[in-house]
Design brief:
This protein is α/β, with parallel strands linked by helices. It has 5 helices and 6 strands, in the order H-H-E-E-H-E-E-H-E-E-H. It has a 6-stranded mixed β-sheet.
């Protein structure tokens, strides 16, 4: 900022001479542009993305990445995943890939409803052959491709921000990591009653 608002005429002349010479050198100009551009901001290694659990790098979408807008092949209407996500709240994608995950998903949906209803919407993504029910007000997507892309081969939960970036990836189906993340980031305030 001080270089732009120089008051001294000789310093302004020097600044203009140096700037014009630098501007002609393409590699340096590209590097400066990358350094000041916000297009290169990455969430993956930032403070807005958390991973919990073992083996997160080998399976599914990672925290910090933009969630892929998967075409839901099991849905004849041509719907895509983003149609099921909230634009104003976090969305918890629960991705059970086996029977124990489906059982845990039911408990997680109940816990989120009781403790985090105003902050998080739930969406359960299961394979086509899974007939489990999770309640009338919970979106359930039955799509093998979505499960494979988002979860890989293990039970997972993804907490997705309204901008469709994954804020939290948990390699288990549990509510405590979500509550810890929301509390650490100021969305929940601890009270004497627990929340």
């Amino acid at each position: 900022t001080r270089m732009v608002t120089l008051r001294s005429r000789p310093l302004r002349a020097l600044r203009n001479l140096v700037a014009s010479n630098i501007a002609g050198w393409v590699p340096l100009r590209r590097r400066i542009t990358r350094g000041i551009s916000q297009l290169g901001v990455a969430y993956r290694r930032g403070a807005l993305a958390y991973e919990v659990g073992e083996g997160h790098r080998a399976n599914g979408v990672r925290p910090g990445a933009r969630l892929p807008n998967v075409a839901l092949s099991a849905n004849a209407s041509g719907a895509r995943l983003y149609e099921y996500l909230s634009n104003i709240r976090y969305t918890l994608l629960i991705l059970p890939v086996d029977d124990s995950g489906v059982q845990s998903a039911g408990g997680l949906v109940t816990a989120v409803r009781e403790r985090l209803r105003d902050l998080i919407e739930c969406c359960v993504v299961v394979s086509v052959g899974n007939s489990a029910e999770f309640g009338n007000d919970i979106d359930v997507i039955r799509d093998d491709k979505a499960v494979r892309v988002l979860a890989g081969r293990r039970n997972r939960c993804l907490l997705v921000r309204p901008d469709k970036h994954v804020a939290l990836g948990v390699n288990e189906i549990a509510v405590e990591p979500m509550i810890g993340f929301l509390r650490e980031n100021g969305y929940l305030v601890a009270t004497a009653g627990g929340e």
